[in-house]
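Supplementary material to the annual report.
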Amino acid sequence: MPSTKHIVILGSTGSIGRQALDVISAMPSRFVVDGLVANRNVKLLLEQARAFSVASIALLDVEGNRDARRDVEIQAADVGCRTFWGDEGVEELVKGSGAEMVISALVGFAGLKPTLAAIRGGKDIALANKETLVAAGALVTRAVRECHVRLLPVDSEHSALFQCLEGERSDEVKRLILTASGGPFRDATVAQLKSVSVADALSHPTWSMGRKITIDSATLMNKGLEIIEAHWLFGVGVDKIDVVLHPQSVVHSLVEFVDGSVKAQLGMPDMRLPILYALCYPERVENSRIPEMNLLEHSPLTFQPPDASRFHCLRLAKEALQSGGTMPAVMNAANEVAVERFLSGKIGFMGIPDIVEKTMARHNVTAVEPELEEIHHADGWARECATQIS
Ligand code: MG
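Predicted assembly:
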């Protein structure tokens, strides 16, 4: 019998968090959920705490939950659960828990600090929060090495690359090829892109995901962030990471080797598969929640190049990685602000890459390998800057 693994989930009420709990609920003898962290969805967090008999919960948004605070604590205590609040409370929960693994699935830059706390607390990380590696790749990968923990990708493309690279030598890798669905506007003209609505951008053709990542998929910034993520996860230069559009989202990514051989990982477009792989690594384990794949239903599988003239975010992400230092953090922050502004109807769709580009142009990179404080400062500066650009 495999031993039981104790887990903490950062971002349990979001799309990845809910799917992780779904996977775990199908294998109750293998996993114990020790702690759950959410930003503000109190109702669902308490439901999850009850269903999984969780020892501790934490809410990041102290201000937004001010009125509910006492009530939340009473309800949690009724089911034998401790409640923590804010950044420091989350860190206390993570470090104090006996969990071996933390699933990092908060949205955006907010995931960085608790993920670093988990690494420094000696926990293996199942990483769904790509912004953590984008904003602070050097810092995070250094902490992973120093603390001797595993960093396992949950992002479907990176899980695919990770699986293709298992047992291979890094000096025999020629190229990483990330696949992208192309989002809902894959074939839209520039004129059409200028006038797309929020609802259009939120309707992704193949994946069901949270709002921020769905917009990032429509602008292809998601793939830009994933190039940076792949660079830090696998130590491969940006010149050796390519992107190919693959509308069916069945081939999750590929690795080309020096002898001309290409390995790919295929599966249904369902995040529960990479979540399961990260949770059980290095084992492969059956799970009733994972849908079976029938290749015949997905034919034909097609591939096409991305059009850089319509989707500027791919280029911006590569430039940010090449500039290095604080630039990827600035790009990420500007993108988070721009996506929020688009979702609230303040700017058009093409305003997103425009704001990111203008913010990057105004930033001077200083430190080559910035510390957390410098990254925070750059993030704050970029948010301010991106808010003001009209
Ligand atoms: Mg992905």
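The mean pLDDT is 95.
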